[in-house]
Amino acid sequence: MTRNLATPRARWRKTDPMAAHDRLPPELRTWAAGAALPWSAASVLRLWQRALRETGCPEAARARLTRAEARTLARDAARVWGDGYPTRPMQPVPRPPGQTPGQKPGQTPGRSP
Description:
The chain is mostly helical. The protein has helices spanning 8-12, 17-22, 26-33, 41-55, 58-81. The longest helix has 24 residues, at 58-81.
């Protein structure tokens, strides 16, 4: 098992991701804990420091992080589910003739299995 420690990937990671997260400022750590995306400590800290430098206000910096996350989610949603998501109307699921909503295939209407 000692061979795994000699792989380039193991040598590449020089920091402990959990320790890096623990070193984040408390208000940033709180924001990251509730974030929808799995931000790395390095990337969220870089955005945070830039936002604080430009705004000078922790609340404005948090709002900027939230907007950046929303933009990323919108971009990813379009890439994954299509441009109209979530504004595109849902298409109804086709049912065989005579089947009522909630009725399982083969079930007689009005009777439970």
